[in-house]
């Protein structure tokens, strides 16, 4: 399959595809981070995670419209406001869902899966009723449009770089939150020994709710970032849910580093294969590879902890 | 047979029902069981004692295949167990009772016993399994022994804690293992239940080898032929109860801190 | 001495015989009399999903393994049947206008010039009938062996099966020239010369389908009341204890998963015959998880409940989608949540709790695992 390309061409192709892979990687990481916190730390399968992401995307879409018509002067910076609002909206909805639904099902992980699937259907239909079935896109501020010419053959879009910068920022924030904050210590304490954590005075119910909320909030930010590179429809979230779950499982549920490594390898494999094969074959081969590896090594790339 | 106790003697596996040699398991570098060796004769009642965290339960887990050994060997009638699957180890004749009663809450007492009946253990065998007179008679006999004759149709969920322990002992009994491993069989029982259980254990240990973990020293003294003391994953002392009790190393561990 | 458990294990209890007769009466007598041939065909289509729901009762309800990829097996069974029918419809005379006559039309459109090797066995009806059951079952065996031997279960298994459903869908859609792509395999006409498109044929197929469903219920019942059925329940409860009673736990899980796959495959083949086409939209994630809700609504431990649950949900789907399409997804979503939170035993649970006690005065024996204990089929 390399026959028709010269060596220089191949280099440029790998660089470009590599960069396309990096953007995919960013969205995957942002999606997977929230999921890894919820699934890895709490053992809860949230099938509606994609819909929380899309909520963030719609919030961004509304923001872009609002700034455009009411505060055009501030439009170049609207995205930062949108990101915060997306986090708050998705996080608040997440906490509500945890309170109404998830907390009753902690001992029945499979049932959680079904219930959150039901939630995802409801959210999808709600989006469809409110925003219509058509996909919507946001208006990018001018500074995000265009690309940087690196060499003759390689150019890198600015919005892609921006998304990646956001991803790095969020990842660092999550790592700090999880490993250096009081909340992070509490989360890890509760997940390791729920009874003991309760006995030493940690309000485990509150920790659960906050964890779920933060996981969903990060999904909201993922949605905001997603609008930079694609348009949003009611079912856009569902397209990503299987990939994201595979990433989290492949990375070894509770490991932050594993999640990032696995998102990287999956997105790179897929986007590189995509250039040479059809998109669907690339996807099939990538997913098949992941499933095959998971069958041989169920614990994923890194060690795995499951709530018992 | 006493050769096992002589240091340096190389034991012939065939003489022992169970020969554990150099058994070691480490979890992330922590050696929960460290170079443990001991030998169990046919029909011997062996009790393993030791403070919490000494590795007693881990030793049983290793023998029945629940945990895989890092190194060392476990020979049961000359057959290496460390390479067998859990179900194959059971089929070879090793039975195990867990610390907390492990029975099937959703099934009746009768069905609990029936599942443990050593026949029809393959998929096809289980599909074609017939509840014939042999099965029924045996279940009734066992139920009588474990004081549950009148509860055969009750869902196991509704039994008392002591009754659940008896049911699990019954489930082991119906397997008729040659080596029976019991993890704290009288823990958490009322005084009356404890007495009945001791009686029951006395009955069932006849004609087989038994490996027991127990804290109740009176009970241990009562049944043990020999005692192995574990401490921090190693064998600290071994021999008759009398000898072990007077071993200064054991006294140190139990009373020293 | 009183032997209370001497004859306690009949094939079915009187109440279950009544349920079976009622169900058979409904499917084989009442519905055919009451419905016109269009509606009857629609019910026939619903009933093909009931095969899947039935398999899930054994696999999920009894064994505690939730597969989110049952559409894969439904689809494979359906595709096997569709491949045979398509080849029969693509005889050289019928396809004279193609550039390569004698191969399915979609292959011709996609510049495929020779029949691929894996299509060739489907010239033969006996081989096809074997493949309908064997291919999905073997596939389930491979997945099950890989997963269960490594003690993968619970949510991990659910996610992996879901991924497999996604992969197969993408594969079928992508390989248009070999599979018919997103449209699936359409324009099916005859089965061994017998036109399946006529109303008379559809009625006959409806009864064949109903008969097969009853047969599968009886097979499932035989499994459920055998010792294997009780071992499945025991495994769901205390897997380790079963292992230490000398059973190779993985083999029993593989069996339950394969049985569910085989049922789903029969349903898929009957779907193709009755509806006249097969497409990837019955394979993927969404249909697969929807099939789980049929079982959940009927009651995950009830074989009869699975059939009623399937009929009810599909009837609701059809009537809602006709009049208020936008409400249907809200309703379906709410159903998923309600059945998990409020009615974990589904229709069968409601029946047992509220209807049955009024029908029979006898106090119910507590022996049956009829009602799901809180939190039972976890991992």
Automatic annotation (TrEMBL), chain A:
Its main location: membrane. It is a multi-pass membrane protein. It comes from the Bacteria. The chain crosses the membrane at residues 12-40, 52-71, 77-101, 161-181, 212-233, 239-263, 275-296. The keyword Cell membrane applies. Keywords: Amino-acid transport, Cell membrane, Membrane, Transmembrane, Transmembrane helix, Transport. NCBIfam families: urea_trans_UrtB (TIGR03409). Belongs to the binding-protein-dependent transport system permease family. LivHM subfamily. PANTHER family: ABC TRANSPORTER PERMEASE PROTEIN, BRANCHED-CHAIN AMINO ACID TRANSPORT SYSTEM PERMEASE PROTEIN LIVH. This is High-affinity branched-chain amino acid transport system permease protein LivH. It comes from Methylobacterium isbiliense.
Automatic annotation (TrEMBL), chain B:
The keyword Nucleotide-binding applies. GO terms for molecular function: ATP binding. It comes from the Bacteria. SUPFAM superfamilies: P-loop containing nucleoside triphosphate hydrolases. Residues 18-257 form the ABC transporter domain. CDD domains: ABC_Mj1267_LivG_branched. This is Lipopolysaccharide export system ATP-binding protein LptB. It comes from Methylobacterium isbiliense. Keywords: ATP-binding, Nucleotide-binding, Transport.
UniProtKB/TrEMBL annotation, chain C:
It comes from the Bacteria. It is found in: Cell membrane. InterPro entries: ABC_transp_permease, ABC_transptr_urea_perm_UrtC, LivM-like. It is a multi-pass membrane protein. Keywords: Cell membrane, Membrane, Transmembrane, Transmembrane helix. Pfam families: BPD_transp_2. The chain crosses the membrane at residues 17-35, 47-69, 125-148, 155-174, 204-223, 244-271, 291-315, 327-351. NCBIfam families: urea_trans_UrtC. This is Urea ABC transporter permease subunit UrtC. It comes from Methylobacterium isbiliense.
